[in-house]
Design brief:
Layout (H helix, E strand, L loop, with lengths): L35 E6 L5 E6 L10 E5 L10 E2 L4 E15 L2 E7 L6 E5 L5 E5 H4 L3 H6 L15 E8 L4 H13 L10 H10 L3 H12 L3 E2 L18 H27 L12 H18 L1
Antiparallel strand pairs: 1-2, 2-3, 3-9, 4-10, 5-6, 5-7, 5-8, 5-9
Length: about 300
């Protein structure tokens, strides 16, 4: 005769304590804000983005970026023309380059988070401090011991990123950039003109799509870094070499991205695509585009 002792009752669909039907809820990952979804890119430059899925008129749209130990990921040297960017370091240590200077930031406690303000048109780049300082010359140039940051080498880096004024452009950028890099976009949605261009560009198809996204969403990477090659011009006047280098770098970036945007419009390659974008953000993007067209009439 079967026992009525609950401890001997096998799990079943009718048992209220069955682990199959009532699994314990999984705790949310640390620093994963509500109304976000995660995209992880594995490999040596591993990174996880927690990107907003809806737009809010009252709060900043913050993307939380996680860099695991040994990740070589960096944001790449770039600038924004129309927005101020903020980086809040929640965990770990990072290097941050703003203009001509590079500093190391460490979140020592939960109440001592570093917030970095990046103004419009300021070139910036950031990533894990320990990876950056593995090059001894960098540490020595900054007056640091090369072992700086090794204490956090096994710790995940967590950074929040957002812009002011508040805009859907930043989360749209992350969704569509990662959609291209991870090839998440749906093939059937591709137009015939787009397929033709893909065939013509071959291996350059992915960089081309990224250039279209960069131009449309105010993200300008330094494509050609001269890095002091015109320093000899400082003999004419102090600092003129760096100014000329910046001018050349800006012209190259703007020229390449403008050309990509023009070709993209000709072949109907969109920076923001519905299949790469959460519904809540897509609706805002479409509405803003429609409002922009009405203003132009």
């Amino acid at each position: 005769m079967p026992s009525n002792n609950p401890s001997t009752i096998p799990p079943s669909i009718n048992h209220p304590m069955s682990p199959e039907t009532h699994p314990p809820p999984s705790p949310p990952p640390p620093y994963a804000p509500p109304n976000t979804a995660a995209i992880t890119r594995p490999g040596p430059s591993s990174v996880t983005y927690h990107i907003p899925t809806t737009a809010s008129p009252t709060t900043a749209l913050k993307t939380t970026i996680h860099l695991p130990p040994n990740s070589t990921w960096t944001s790449g040297l770039h600038w924004h023309n129309n927005s101020t960017e903020y980086l809040r370091l929640l965990q770990g240590s990072i290097f941050a380059t703003l203009g001509p200077s590079t500093k190391i930031y460490t979140a020592t406690t939960a109440h001592a988070e570093a917030v970095i303000r990046v103004g419009p048109r300021v070139r910036h780049n950031w990533g894990r401090a320990d990876e950056y300082l593995k090059q001894r010359s960098r540490a020595e140039r900054m007056g640091l011991d090369p072992s700086t940051g090794e204490g956090e080498a096994g710790e995940e880096v967590v950074v929040e990123e957002w812009t002011a004024p508040a805009s859907v452009a930043k989360p749209l950028f992350f969704w569509n950039l990662n959609g291209v890099v991870t090839r998440r976009s749906a093939g059937p949605a591709e137009l015939r003109a787009e397929r033709v261009l893909r065939g013509l560009l071959g291996a350059y198809w992915i960089p081309f799509q990224l250039f279209v996204i960069f131009y449309a969403l105010d993200n300008y990477p330094v494509l050609v870094g001269l890095e002091g090659r015109l320093a000899w011009l400082d003999g004419v006047e102090s600092g003129v070499g760096r100014e000329v280098e910046h001018c050349v770098e800006h012209v190259v970036t703007f020229g390449v991205l403008s050309l990509a945007s023009l070709v993209g419009r000709m072949f109907r390659v969109e920076a923001v695509r519905e299949e790469r974008t959460p519904v809540g953000l897509w609706e805002v993007w479409v509405r803003e585009k429609d409002d922009g067209r009405k203003k132009d009439l």
